[in-house]
Amino acid sequence: MRTLRRVLVRDLVRLGAQAATAALVVACGVAVLAGMFGTWQALERAQREFYAGARFADVFASATRAPLAVERELAAVAGVAAVHARVVLDVVLDVAGVAEPVTARLVGVRADGRHALNAVVLRAGRMPAPRSASEAVASEAFAQANALAPGSEVRAVIAGRLQRVTIVGIGLSPEFIYEIAPGSVVPDPRHFGILWMDEHAVASAAGREGAFNDVAIALAPGARADGVIAAVDGVLARYGGRGAFARDDHASHRYISDEIAQNRVSATWLPAVFFAVAAFLVAVTLVRLTALQRMQIGTLRAFGYTRGEVVRHYVAFAAAIVAAGGAAGFLAGAWLGFALTRLYRDYYHFPSLDFAVDARLAAVVAGALLVVGVAGAAGAAVRVARLAPAEAMRAPVPPAYRAGRLLPALPASLRMIARGIARRPLAAAASAVGFAVGLALLVVGFYFRDALEVLLHTQFEVIQREDVEVAFREGVGPQAVHALARMPGVTRVEGERVEPIRVLSGHRSKRTVLVGVAPGAELRRLLDRSGRSVALPLDGALMSAQLARLIAVRPGDEVDATLLDGTQRTVRLRVAGLVDDWTGTALWADIAVVDRASGIGPRLTGARLRADPGALPALYAALKETPGLAGVSLREANLATFRAILDRSFAVSVAIDIAFAGLIAFGLVYNGARVALAERATELATLRVLGFTRGETAGLLLGEQATLTLVAVPLGLALGTGLAAWFAARLSTDLYRVPFVMTGATLGLAVAVTLACAIVSGALVGWRVRRFDLIAVLKARE
Amino acid sequence: MQPVFRMQDVARTYRVGDVEVRALDGVDLALWPGEFVVLLGPSGSGKSTLLNLLGGLDTPTRGSVWYEDHDLATGDDASLTRYRREHVGFVFQFFNLLPSLTAEENVALVTEIAASPMPPREALALVGMAGRATHFPAQLSGGEQQRVAIARAIAKRPDVLLCDEPTGSLDAATGRLVLAALARANRELGTITAVITHNAAIAAMGDRVLRMSSGRVVEERRNAVRASADELAW
Questions:
Q1: What is the enclosing helix (H) or strand (E) of A67?
Q2: Which of A210, A233, A751, B100 is deepest in the core (most CB within 10 A)?
Q3: Which of A412, A688, A696 sits opposite B105 (nearest CB)?
Q4: Distance (Å, rounded) from C-alpha A734 to C-alpha A731?
Q5: Residue A632 in contact with residue A623, Cβ under 8 Å?
Q6: Using CA atoms in the order B187, B192, B198, B200, what is the torsion angle rounded to 10 degrees?
């Protein structure tokens, strides 16, 4: 058996390039599987452990002002296990080194940091001293983005006074793992952060002494969120309850859970593609090897090697490829996993998010490798087992071809190609499908970049026309617009009234906001599906198309909107049209409509400002000292943050997509051409002798692969476009939508990249035609 | 009359491992228009090497090989390919038909790249294979395959037909059919035909017989009367 092992090693060396191609595709599959599966596991573990350790709540609610005694009332609701009531206040900060105003959410905490729910995990420093109004724990992302450490100071307008707040600690909370400003889609930790301060200090700053405006609730084991939410809404209705919601509507939780779900999907189907291609390549290589070595197989059997021993010899060939690819892939996968979790740590803030190479990961990878090995070796093993020793010693029967009815019109050379494909339809189809999948991967990769470019452009350059958006802490009178207009450099101000509502249509309802827009407003465009501006109706409202889908509403329908401001007034609104926006699920109406609906007359909750670009620094400085602001959002800064995130993540993912798709294209064409070369060496040499040039001969050698590749291109483009449309639909949620865009440039680039890889691998094999020893090939009978 | 091929002091050596093999060693040879030449000799006598040089498949280590005004000794791959394409027809011992093409298509493969070929059917008719035009190699006997190969070689109206053991893998009766086809092509198209064989019986068919041994032409004789293929026996 030692000699047989030597044969194995020499076969592997001789078919090195082909074996290496197959091993490389196996390695890709394992790398993606190990990296993504491990990352998925790491995210899930981090989330589970953080939620359990810090007792993340199940139900959340906010109200205008509820006396602290109501906390006990809530605790008495059936199904409630624990309640944590507190005051939350949004303020504008002045952070050293940041020209723009920064928005912070002040969250009241107890000095010992021990809450029944949503505990703050200290990463550095200490909790604020009891009753201290000048100490805070800053969220880690915010602290890192602004170089804040225990001892740093920020300034904030709190309770009408500009106050200094000292950062005494850095912390994390399960509520703010994904730390985004309300209404935002991506985190901007430089301009938005969390400050945990003493609960009395925050209550006093918010004018809520002896009261709370925010509550987190844990459910008793087995309790249903729906029932508790209804009961909580009932209790808080009197106090301006905004409508309780479960974890599924909690922004941070949603983003993380969606990300985990997507990881699970990617960790499944992407490696599956690679494994399918890898199994195919192993099978093709091995079947070819056994066909070429019929005589060797016969000789071994004639010498008395058992069927099992000979089969084992060839299965070992597959095992060697799979094992080599698996080992390389596992290392690459570990690297990928560490890189991915590091990337995730920038966006998701867990106490620990660690990629772990554990037994479970190893078992999953081993299982996948076993499947690839078995699938790759089965065909050849069966052939070897079936081969009778005597049959193996005879010359192979010449392959039989069929004429084909449509072929006579073609030149003889093209007929050879067509019949070659027709003789092995399954292998040809598998090769074309594999290539198409590789191309589709690339189309999808490029699609995401395009989609987000469109999203960026539409959101920040077409829809949002303002420079600055401000939110008032409490509703203010319409005259506030005049005060803002007098600020430095301001050229236009448009007031806005945003009211939280519950919209109801039939039995479907959804918590959202009703946005009152000033007539003639220009700083925020409302666009329809084809990108045209939609005018606000004098009466009724415009609805986000996503909301309309969710609650099954069509233009012309009427819906009930219940204001969640404590009045619980319900108004009937006719949906005059739909707005195709990219984030949220709002309703828009003329501000007069909202004012009438509220029953308390004109009020503004925020405003959009346009300013002279030269005067922006002065405007920022003034906004930092303006009392009554709950937040400031800057269009340019948002755009820059978004773009930085995209550029960073897409640089990596597009490179990976190109590498993977390129490898698939390369592997399939290379393998196919090598098989053709081995099987048809005599044929091709004959052609050379008959006067065919090297180019013509290489053309016939590569014709089959070229044809399959060209057939695969439209298939891949269709598959890629279909996948992109599927992703666009799947990823469109009430949080944000991903537009479906497919440009000729994207399709062309994807085709160019994959074809380039195919051409390079084809050329590598075609080059061998030059080295043909015509005399030797012709003398040897196959 | 000028010879079509001229070989002068041609030597060809190969290196096989550490051993230098002298396949041809100082051969002088001329082939004349319309000639049927039989090259006889045992294995390793150098006859295949000689045929390869005439066919532009190989170049000599020393000496000159001319086909009319084409220098075959120093030609590069492109010029030798062009020479084979325009002037040479090959017939191989193992036929070397393309299994994915029918008989007619195998012929068409060559006529498609030739300057003034005959229609494939006509070439097949010349070798008595017109009735099997639509058959694939797997459906033909050895003799039939070789006749298709001859049709493929003559269809482009080559100036020279080079045959390497054309009957080597056929029985005698089939071999005679194949040789008859070669003789007919030589007669009707006036193509110089060189047949290498170790079968001495075939010698009677040639205008001229060259016997080779150890890389040299050791005997040259001329047949006063050419025997027809069906007179041969082996």
A1: strand A59-67
A2: B100
A3: A412
A4: 10
A5: yes
A6: 40
Please write the tens of the pLDDT for every residue from A578-598: 998 888 889 999 999 999 988
Q: Which amino acid is at B54?
A: L
pLDDT at A408: 65
Residues of chain A neighbouring B81 (CB-CB closer than 8 A): 688, 691-694
Confidence band, pLDDT 50/70/90 cuts, at residue A657: confident
Angle at B145 between CA B142 and CA B146, to 5 degrees: 90
Which residues of B fall within a CB distance of 8 Å from A695?
none
Chain B residue whose CA is closest to A417? B100
H, E, C per residue of chain B: CCCCEEEEEEEEEEEECCEEEEEEEEEEEEECCCCEEEEECCCCCCHHHHHHHHCCCCCCCEEEEEECCEECCCCCHHHHHHHHHHHEEEECCCCCCCCCCCHHHHHHHHHCCCCCCCCHHHHHHHCCCHHHCCCCHHHCCHHHHHHHHHHHHHCCCCCEEEEECCCCCCCHHHHHHHHHHHHHHHHHHCCEEEEEECCHHHHHHCCEEEEEECCEEEEEEECCCCCCHHHCCC
A441, A442, A443, A448: CA torsion to nearest 10 = 90
A-chain CB neighbours of B57 within 8 Å are: 689, 774-775
Q: Which residues of A touch B157 (CB under 8 A)?
A: none
Q: What are phi and psi of B229, to 5 degrees?
A: -60, -40
Q: Which residue ranges of chain B lie beneath pLDDT 70?
A: none
Q: Using the beta-carbon criterion (under 8 Å), do A412 and B99 form an inter-chain contact? A: no
Helix (H, G, I), strand (E, B) or coil at A218: strand
Interchain pair B86, A778: CB under 8 A: no
Two tokens at A132? 């201290």
- Find all residues with CB under 8 Å of A659, minimum gap 6, and list them: none
CATH 3.10.310.10 fits B32-58+87-231, yes or no: no
Model confidence at A8, pLDDT cuts 50, 70, 90, reads confident
Tell me the ipTM for this assembly.
0.80
The answer to whether A416 contacts B100, with C-beta atoms less than 8 Å apart, is yes
Three-state secondary-structure class, residue A350 = coil
Residue range B97-156, pLDDT digits in tens:
888 888 998 898 888 888 889 999 999 998 889 999 999 888 998 889 999 999 999 998
How far, in Å, CA of A49 to CA of A350, rounded? 9
In A54-105, which residue ranges form alpha helices assigned H by DSSP? 70-75
CA A548, CA A588: separation in Å to the nearest integer?
Answer: 13
Inter-chain touch A775–B86, beta carbons under 8 Å: no
Looking up tokens 């070992």, which residue turns up? A316
Task: Give the model's pLDDT for residue A407.
Answer: 61
- Tell me if residue A83 falls in helix, strand or coil: strand
At residue A297, the 3 state secondary structure works out as: helix
Question: pLDDT tens, A595-633?
Answer: 998 888 899 999 999 999 999 999 999 998 888 888 899
Residue contact A399–B98, C-beta within 8 A:
no
pLDDT in tens, A565-578: 777 889 999 999 99
Torsion over CA: B58, B60, B65, B69 (sign)? positive
**A309-329: per-residue pLDDT in tens?**
889 888 998 899 999 999 999
Q: For residue A409, count CB atoms less than 10 angstroms from its CB and return exposed for 0-12, middle for 13-18, buried for 19 or more.
A: exposed
Residue A575 CA to residue A537 CA, distance in Å, equals 9
Q: Structure tokens of A722?
A: 């279909």
Comparing CA positions, the residue from A26, A781, A776, A729 lying closest to residue A377 is A26
Is the Cβ–Cβ distance between A62 and A88 less than 8 Å?
yes
Tell the residue number behind the tokens 């949002």, with chain if given.
A464
Distance from CA of A684 to the nearest CA of B (A): 9
Name the DSSP class of A558: E
CB pairs A-B closer than 8 Å: 87
Structure tokens at B25: 């060693």
